[in-house]
Amino acid sequence: MVSQSTIERPAAAADVQTRGAAPRIKLAVKDLTISYGKAVALKEVNLEVREHEIFGIIGPANAGKTSFLKALNRMDVFTPGMRVNGDIEFNGRDTRHLNNIYALRSRIGVVFPLPVGLPMTVYDNVALSPRWRGITNKADLDVIVQRCLTRAALWDEVKDRLDALGSLLSGGQQQRLTIARALSQEPDLLMLDEFSIAVDPVTTMRIEDVLKELRKEVTIILVTNLVQQARRLADRTAFFLNSECVEIGVTEDLFTGEVKDRRTRDYVEGRFG
Ligand SMILES: Nc1ncnc2c1ncn2[C@@H]1O[C@H](COP(=O)(O)OP(=O)(O)O)[C@@H](O)[C@H]1O
Ligand SMILES: [Mg+2]
């Protein structure tokens, strides 16, 4: 893994300049193939994610969903044996040949299936990224911490114990803390990988409400093992199966409209997976 000192955000994010006029297409993926050694995890995927949409990705285990997210934020660099071919443009800029992948990674917030709390207080979990960006003034940090925790629907529950270790929160709270921390990066793109796998249904619904609000500000890629979650949240959804992107469509069409591939309907109706 990378030591913290090497993941400091560069002062000038020259490689991926995302502020200013944003393109309508947030992410363009062309002929993306991912392999681990000789095993192909994802084959020739072509898709686009539009700005401010919630883009769902559904599919059974081992379909290649997580690998796809890893390619987007250049986790391949830290994953031995992982090879990525094809083009990925983020905000119209090629991400495959960057001099500085940290500038890219700082624009992309990631939430994993299990909360990965940093071994520090609730406050510091959220203040870490702003501090890396050079914000050191306590009053400024306070505002950011409160805003991020509020946006993650966690503020009311933790405002009196900001100095407690994040690991002491409940599982559902920790997952929301992870979201608050992702938001503290001020990401352009938020990627969630099966966020609700270890979260109770009530927290899941709260987080779903959070995502509906957040889409006004960020583009969201939602990988989910729950097809009904994709149906509730995603504007468009891709169905991954056995290392292929079988179908991409308006989410509701996958459930009730025309599908191009019967396996899509079989999957969303629970006939396998
Ligand atoms: N680090 C890795 N090394 C080798 N193979 C991997 C690695 N990560 C994933 N794979 C393989 O890639 C395929 C896709 O995995 P993954 O992207 O995790 O799928 P999903 O998230 O849809 O379950 C699987 O066959 C898995 O075993
Ligand atoms: Mg996965």
Automatic annotation (TrEMBL):
Residues 27-267 form the ABC transporter domain. Its EC number is 3.6.3.27. GO terms for molecular function: ATP binding; ATP hydrolysis activity; phosphate transmembrane transporter activity. Pfam families: ABC_tran. InterPro entries: AAA+_ATPase, ABC_transporter-like_ATP-bd, ABC_transporter-like_CS, P-loop_NTPase, PstB-like. One of its GO terms (cellular component) is membrane. Keywords: ATP-binding, Cell membrane, Hydrolase, Membrane, Nucleotide-binding, Phosphate transport, Transport. GO terms for biological process: phosphate ion transmembrane transport. The keyword Transit peptide does not apply. Gene3D superfamilies: P-loop containing nucleotide triphosphate hydrolases. Transmembrane segments: none annotated. This is Phosphate import ATP-binding protein PstB 3. The gene is pstB3.
